[in-house]
Fold:
Amino acid sequence: MRTLAANSLLCGLLTLSLLAQAPAQKNPAAASAVKVVTASDLTALVAKQPKDQNAFQAFIELAPYSVSMEHRIKGQGAAVHEKDAELFYVIDGSGTLVTGGKLVEEKRTNDSNLSGTSIQGGTSKKVSKGDWIIVPEGTPHQFPDVQGLTLMSVHLPRK
Structure:
């Protein structure tokens, strides 16, 4: 029930975000682009993830928005998204989120993203199932320590 409520809340937030940022459309064909991912769909997607490696799966896409499931059994490098805020919902597991500070061994991955091996001088925060996290654009972030962490992530581009 908690997962269903969280999914409903996320869908509501995404809908409000899309309505607030998108121009009004009078195109009846747009209704065919609507996609519903039920709680059981998401549960099945999470259950299919490998138990021995990190995995990533986009499950809703409406450009420029994409909702993804990220399954992590080991920490990953750090990132900065220069043009997007990133919203996370912890579906399952727990871990440590480090934000702020400076990327170590910074590299540009594309025109609006940077990566690094870790974060120097950031702030650590424990996160667990049911938590919501929003990371503003331009903020270094990393989950260096995880215990079967499964996240829903949404990149929210700024105008």
Notes: The chain has one domain: 2-157. The domain at 2-157 is CATH 2.60.120.10 (Jelly Rolls). The first helix runs from residue 2 to 21. The helical segments are 2-21, 39-47.
